[in-house]
Amino acid sequence: MGPAGEGERRVRVNRTMLAAGLSLAVLAAGCGGGGGSTPTVPEGEPTVSIDGERLVPVRDACHVQGTVTNLNPTRRLDVTLRYQAVDAAEKLLGTTRTDLTGLAPGEQRSFNATGFAANGRGLVPCSAIARFDRIETTITPR
Q1: Of 73, 84, 86, 141, which one's alpha carbon is 20 to 30 angstroms from that of 105?
Q2: For 109-126, how does the pLDDT look when each residue is reduced to its tens digit (9 = 90+)?
Q3: Cβ neighbours of residue 48 closer than 8 Å, sequence gap 6 or more
């Protein structure tokens, strides 16, 4: 299975497909989030479901919170989620990420991505964000 070894593969979700799906979910849910959407990573056997992605102000920063469920019936998974935020003029404001390690089969876990930030700008407040998109979902079976 390559240099990573048997069972140690990394799966990257098609960013264009995810961005398009999340954009539609954002339009359906209103300004600024994936609330109400349940995107599932479309990679062979069931892997993860990401639910309730939403913006949450935490002090001077804007975080993304939600839940991830491991749909794989037999494998623990490590999941990395990356997001970007844009303003009303579609200008990139900043990015954030979260890492969830060792999700047991069937486990549902809440996440709180660090605040959106940009080099030279610092932390991004929720009031500046018109839309956010998940730009990467990386799943690593253990």
Answers
A1: 84
A2: 999 999 999 888 899 999
A3: 40, 41, 68, 69, 70, 71, 72, 77, 79, 103, 137, 139
142 in Cβ contact with 103 (< 8 Å)? no
Q: What is the pTM of this model?
A: 0.70
CA pair distance 107, 96, nearest whole angstrom: 23
The alpha carbon torsion through 40, 54, 70, 80 (nearest 10 deg) reads: 90
Tell the residue number behind the tokens 């961005």, with chain if given: 19
Tens-place pLDDT, residues 55-110: 999 998 999 999 999 999 999 999 999 999 999 999 999 999 999 999 999 999 99
